Amino acid sequence: AWGSERVSSDGPVSPPLSLCIKTTKYTLLSFLPKNLFEQFHRFANVYFVFIALLNFVPVCNAFQPQLALAPVVFILSVTAIKDLWEDYRRHRSDKEINHMDCLVYSRYSKHQYMERFWKEARVGDFIRLRCNEILPADVLLLSSSDPDRLVHIETATLDGETNLKQRRVVCSFLDLDCDFDPSKYNSVIECEKPNNDLARFRGYITHRSGRRDGLYKDNLLLRGCTIRNTEECVGIVIYAGHETKAMLNNNGPRYKRSKLEKQMNVDVGWCVIILLVMCLFSAIGHGLWMYQYGDKRPVFDVLSPEGAELSPVLSAIYLFLTMIIVFQVLIPVSLFVSIEIVKICQVYFIHQDQDLYDEETDSHLQCRALNITEDLGQMQYIFSDKTGTLTENKMVFRRCTVAGVEYSHDANARRLAMYQDLVDSEEEDCTSHSGTLPRRDSVTSNQSAAKVVLRSQSTKSHRRTGSRAEAKRASILSKHTAFSSPMEKDITPDPQLLEKVNHCSSQMTFKRFHSQSLSQLPSDLTDIIDFFIALTICNTVVVSSPNQPRQKVRMRFGLKSPVKTIEDFIKRFTSSRLTSNSNSSSSSSLNRSSHRDCSSVLSSPSAESTLTKLDEEHHLGGPVGLEHAFSPVPPHTTEGEPGALEEGELRYEAESPDEAALVYAARAYKCSLVGRLPDQVTVELPDLGKLSFELLHTLGFDSTRKRMSVVVRHPLTDQITVYTKGADSVIMDLITLPSTDDSKGKRQRKILYKTQNYLNLYAADGLRTLCIAKKVMTKEEYAVWLRHHLEAETAIQGREELLFQSALRLEINLHLLGATGVEDRLQDGVPETIASLRKAGLQIWVLTGDKQETAINIAYACKLLEPDDEIITLNADSQEAMAVLLDESLHYIQAKFLSSDPSRSFQKDYAPAYSFPPPPPPSPSSSQTQSFLVHRLGLVIDGRTLAYALDSSLDEKFLAVARSCRSVLCCRSTPLQKSMVVKLVRNKLKVMTLAIGDGANDVSMIQVADVGVGISGQEGMQAVMASDFALPRFRNLQKLLLVHGHWCYSRLANMILYFFYKNAMFVALIFWYQFYCGFSGSAMIDQWYLIFFNLMFSAFPQLITGTLDKDVSSETLQELPQLYMNGQNSEEYKPYMFWMTMIDAFYQSLVCFFIPYCAYADSDVDLLTWGTPITTLALFTILIHLGLETKTWTWMNWVSITFSVGLFFTVALCYNASCPTCYSPSNPYWTMQRLLGEPLFYLLCVITPVAALLPRLVRGRCVSVYERENMWDVQVVV
Asked: Where are the catalytic residues (predicted)?
């Protein structure tokens, strides 16, 4: 009865769940076992623990058991400390959140709301929320102090969107005349299981009377959102703690395995094989050595634990295990930890790059995947969204056509040109004044000056008008209202169209006083008024007051009689209606949703009364007279709020820039949106004043229908009117084709033909097009549709599909009003960035939902397509036609581009099997002849044809055509198609892919690619949250890939090879000694040096080099993008390089071993006195080797090398001085001190490294000459 239990439709009753969250992984008791368990998931850690434990076995131990544990304990401890610190930070964050206050209804004492911590609340508790409070859980809204039973929330913490979203009280609680009383609540809530879908919520609430009402996402307030513009609201907790949608979407950083890491793991496997071969060789050698003694056992023979003699075979087996311990350093245990440290440092320095900071959006680069930074230097294909990624996603109204007449808005084009001039001059002033911000008064003057028309400019300009100066001005003027910069909202009307609007208004005013029917108006004039009415009301825009943009303006204007209560509304006329779907996936006029969502339909409190009222009105003789529509009724205002606001002062909270652009365009013609309520939209028309449209339904936009509609009762005609706007590709098919028998029908067909031509011109001009249409329904038609719609609303199974079909039944037989052209301008630097990326050997595909002509025009503007490129356009109506098109395209490519080159057989490249081995990108000197790409050829394909191309029977043919083209442009593509294209190219061509986008429709594409990049744009943060890297602007991609990607790949590749070299070189020294000690597993190097050589003495310099080394400067990498091809071809780390490194390591170890061996031959030095110089020489050789590989020297390189040498000698001197009787008979006492007094030691320190590194010096010299020549060739090509 209290609602303390949540009933799931998919399972049994679940117990009340606390709001307490816990993101930590460990407790005090579980930390040690759980952390060790996680670390042992890494095979290298298991291997080294096994080696350390093996050293405790007496028959095969090589070192002191406690000493052998030191390296692995150190590695595990460092990782554990890092994990503990991260978990402690999570614990502090959890504690802070769980101890936030909220008002929870006390059921068992006092029956009032009491302050409690979030963690003390439970599922089923009633929570009272106030303005600006953060929601502690997913709460079902039951009551609101708002007179319209609305709550506005800000979801910036969930999706990054700052615009307000409406949520409404559950329909069965709308008619409460008093405050909600939790003690009288006796309903049961049934809802779906917790999930991470922010755009969906389904459930039912069953009352004691048996009445069942549906629950939708518009009734749910999500955890983490902020309450706005509502003094107080009450809700019941549905999902709490880790079951909330916000927590289910919080996946943390993404973890992937980079291409370089995969190749490194292969080489680690080779190291294991080399280790086993060396151990097996030593074991066989030891067995043969023991066998030669026969029955005469040597005096130094080691007996078994029982005191018996060991056979040669058993000795060989024991020695095999001993050699694994001795040679364990060959497997680089510290490599994995070093790589993690270097990657963290690389990410830090990338974050510090000021070129990747955008002042306009105040955003930095974000790295959400810490372990694939080197993949940025190996990309081969880039898949990009267009809107918001290549363009600004700042929609500017440019042109329109109404009733077949086109209005070019030349004055508005000149205003934008003037605005651009002011922005450019302001940026120059800012630059000349060292970037100081313009004064506030100068911003105001520039705003007014931007409206002055001084000169003209072609409407084909796609130059981005956004800038830092504009952003600062816009932030002041808009007061943080989205999509409200002066460029977007200050529209200059077309004089001809403005004159017609005024003329139509005067005609309607005239008929108002003479009580004449509006049907007598000319159809072209009524279409103009309906066109602007549709722009004004066919959206989900919320009106904000001027001084408090986050406070909704509540203004209720009279309909046919004042409406004060919900009962009055039901008695007069109540229909089931769709509440405004405020989520980005279903509300925007052109919002590119990733899935269909019609679940926002809500039934009214009394849907049956709608049909009853329709019947009554039908019997009374139809619509009410015009005197009711024009009767002046004073507006009803909420107490304490202004009764009237000037039109120019209102601001609009739009959910997408498309909606805002159209509403501001209508306002320019004095058709202004004044207020929006759940059941009413108020507009102000010239001469007619304020009119209130009764809002019956809102059919939100979805990616399948590609349109949105509103159903209203027109205040002038009392007719039920449907206004629809959407993509021209779908709206034009829904228009009723008039008959050609009369003049009116011929005129309508002419309008359709002209409108289609204008749409083609708009698309060719790069404008985003929308068609506007309407439909007038009779009461009978509406009643029939409403009955089916109510059935769909109340359906339990397949509700979304039924509502979708209901919308399709409504949106037919439309009457075309006109079309609009909105410009989305290119971001700054996009053409230059694309040009640089192409020079770098990257293939760029653009996947967009825009129509074909618009996408092609933008492609030309951003230099994706060049004027002299040949375009292959694939548009097919069937799969068979698509197969024919692909075959023709392949033959055309063969005939024109491949026939002249006999070495490149078409049949070989495009055989029926269509297998695609990964072709290496061309070298800079041969890019014109050896590349598999066909130059000066572009491919354009639309969404319907792409669906055929992605079929398994045609996908390889499609790839054969696409990979031969310089550019690929996929238009009208759905989110699913985008991800399928990326997956197809990645899997079939075996190439490295990067996907970049800014909206929710790009998420699937971003997640499928090897590297996903999100743009912090106008469409929220869905793409950013799903990405591996987040960028403020598309232009930042150039430096991220060409500079930081190149550096990260080069550094890590060289560091990995250096690790293999260093370990192999050091282990080989012991291996050579086995030939002189009967393969007994003895070592001439002190075990302290052997254990800590890689862990301490040689570790720091390589970390500094791996973090800071720069083989080429940033300026050179950006001036010569062709250098990026080194990473694409894996020039820094090819498979043969591992073996060359091993050969070099074994050669250097031979030199470091035998030169001291010859120097101390026939001398009386002990084993450690000979072994210590070998260790010292190996350290010097390894460090000098690193110095030769270092391209950029900094003071940190010098300090790290000096520190390593100093640390070695310090440890050696202290250790040798403090160990007089450690390992008899070979005693390390005073060894280093004696060596430092011998001239021979210093001579060896000079001769040995030079001899060891001489081949590398010669090779490095030859490579440097080749690279300089190659660099010159690149410059010549450029």
From this structure: 385
Which is more confident, 17 or 505? 505
pLDDT at position 710 is 92
Is it the case that residue 752 has pLDDT exceeding 50? yes
Q: Binding residue per annotation — 387?
A: yes
Q: Annotation-wise, does 259 bind a ligand?
A: no
Rounded-to-integer distance, Cα 607 and Cα 973, Å: 39
Sheet harboring 220-221: ordered strands across? 113-117, 101-105, 126-130, 232-239, 138-144, 220-221
Q: Over the stretch 55-82, which tens digit does the pLDDT of each residue have?
A: 787 777 666 777 777 777 887 888 888 7
701 labelled as ligand-binding? yes
Tokens found for residue 339: 């790589």
CA distances to 998, 1099, 1192, 1194, 1197 from 1104, rounded to whole Å, are 36, 9, 11, 9, 6
CA angle 103-109-114, nearest 5°?
A: 15
880 in a known ligand binding site: no
Tokens of 279: 């151990």
| 1278 vs 1272: CA distance, rounded Å | 10
Enzyme catalytic residues: 385
Inform me whether the pLDDT recorded for 170 exceeds 90: no
Report the DSSP pairing between strands 1029-1031 and 1011-1015.
Answer: parallel
750 labeled part of a ligand binding site = no
d(CA 1053, CA 65): 34
Does the pLDDT at position 850 exceed 80? no
Q: What whole-number distance in Å separates Cα of residue 880 and Cα of residue 948? A: 9
How far apart are alpha carbons 978 and 754 in whole angstroms? 33
Annotated binding-site residue? 577: no
The C-alpha atoms of residue 1073 and residue 880 are separated, in whole angstroms, by: 72
Query: Strands, DSSP E only, in 20-137?
Result: 101-105, 113-117, 126-130
Per mean pLDDT, which range of 189-203, 709-723, 1129-1143 is the poorest? 189-203
User: Is 768 known as a binding-site position?
Assistant: yes
Long-range CB pairs of 249-254 (<8 Å, 24+ gap) are: 249/158, 249/196, 249/198, 249/1025, 250/23, 253/368, 253/369, 253/370, 254/368, 254/369, 254/1028
Distance from the Cα of residue 220 to its chain's centroid = 26
Question: In angstroms, how far is the first alpha carbon of the chain from the final one?
Answer: 77
The CA-based angle 1137-1144-1266, given to 5 degrees, is 60
903 pLDDT band (50/70/90 cuts)?
Answer: very low
Compute the distance between CA of residue 323 and CA of residue 1067 in angstroms, rounded to an integer. Answer: 11
643 is in an annotated binding site: no
Contact 765, 461 (CB under 8 A): no
Q: What is the pLDDT of residues 345-392, one digit of tens each?
A: 888 888 888 888 887 777 788 887 777 888 899 999 999 988 778 877
Predicted confidence (pLDDT) at residue 852 exceeds the cutoff of 60:
yes
Highest-confidence segment of 370-379, 965-974, 1127-1136, 1201-1210: 1201-1210
CB 543 within 8 A of CB 650: yes
User: Is the distance from CB of 411 to CB of 492 less than 8 angstroms?
Assistant: yes
The two structure tokens encoding residue 60: 């095969």
Amino acid type, 268: V
Helical packing angle, 1167-1189 and 1135-1159, nearest 10°: 140
Decide the pairing of beta strands 150-154 and 101-105: unpaired
pLDDT tens-place string over residues 388-417: 788 776 778 888 999 888 888 777 667 666
For residues 566-589, one letter each, b for 16 or more C-beta atoms within 10 angstroms of the residue's C-beta and e for the rest, the string is beebbeebbbbbbbbbbbbbbbbb
| Whole-number Å distance between alpha carbons of 843 and 833 | 13
d(CA 770, CA 729): 9
Residue 742 labelled as part of a binding site: no
Contact 375, 1011 (CB under 8 A): yes
Looking at 33-98, which runs of residues are DSSP E strands? none
Tell which wins on pLDDT, 1072 or 3: 1072
